[in-house]
Amino acid sequence: MDKRAALTDALADVMRYARALTRNGDTAEDLLHDCVERALSRLHQFEAGTNMRAWLFTILHNIHRQNLRTQSRRPAPASLTDELAARIGQPGDQDDRLALRDFDRALAELAEEQRAVILLIGLEDLSYAETAEVLDIPVGTVMSRLSRAREKLRLSMDGNLKPSLRSVK
Fold it and tell me: What is the rounded CA–CA span in Å between residue 96 and residue 46?
């Protein structure tokens, strides 16, 4: 498979990651456009036989970080609930939609570094090594960020699922 075909095949995954990362459809499209533009201009640097998706995720993530640094204020985040529901395939009942909404909120509360690790491993099915390469961090850091992110999500979701009760005497 040639490089351009591999790039084209990976675009849906890269767009999904851009939506999850930016939490805004329009911003995600702009980010994807910048990513593709940069990837095409540097396609000669891509090493044949390596993972095109991971290379594109790296470019996208770096552009996103650069954009965050230059923005004075971050726009209000859009919901991931629609994206998650689309991945599941069915709208589900009200409890499912509420659980997705709660997960979306819990995900939004994570630090950017933890959210990126959760999204790359959980949503994009990258390995720890590929995630480390995309984020340019050691594999051990990926593992610790993932562990902390999962724990925070678990605690946040447990808090949403358990009603606050007090004993009355």
Answer: 41
